[in-house]
């Protein structure tokens, strides 16, 4: 049974790494149950602006 649409939102804050995917999946489950939008926030505090393939792979996986 799908919950009625409400004013709630789900936000998951993650860092690059394997735990981020699991947290996003849990947030996604909650957002479906509540009929609420899901937002994913990640903050990269490094000053390194070079391309990082590992980070790009995480971002690509999270978007799916």
Number of helices: 2
Counting helices, strands and paired strands, the structural category is alpha+beta
Arrangement of strands in the largest sheet: 1-2
- Mean pLDDT, rounded to whole units? 80
Rounded to the nearest angstrom, the radius of gyration is 14 Å
Would you spell out the secondary-structure blueprint of this structure?
Elements: E1 10-14, H1 18-34, E2 38-42, H2 53-63
Parallel strand pairs: 1-2
Brief summary:
This protein is of the alpha+beta class and 64 residues long. The chain has a domain at 1-43. It has helices at 18-34, 53-63, and strands at residues 10-14, 38-42.
Polypeptide structure, described:
Helices cover 44% and strands 16% of the residues. The mean pLDDT is 80. The chain has 64 residues and is an alpha+beta fold. The chain has a domain at 1-43. The longest helix is centred in the middle third of the chain and has 17 residues, at 18-34. It contains 2 helices and 2 strands. The protein has a two-stranded parallel ribbon with strand order 1-2. β1, α1 and β2 (38-42) form a beta-alpha-beta unit.
């Amino acid at each position: 049974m799908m919950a009625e649409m409400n004013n709630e939102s789900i936000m998951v804050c993650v860092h690059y790494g394997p735990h981020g995917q699991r947290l996003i999946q849990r947030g996604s489950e909650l957002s479906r149950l509540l009929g609420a939008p899901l937002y994913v926030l990640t903050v990269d505090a490094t000053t390194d602006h070079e391309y990082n393939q590992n980070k790009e792979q995480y971002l690509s996986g999270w978007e799916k």
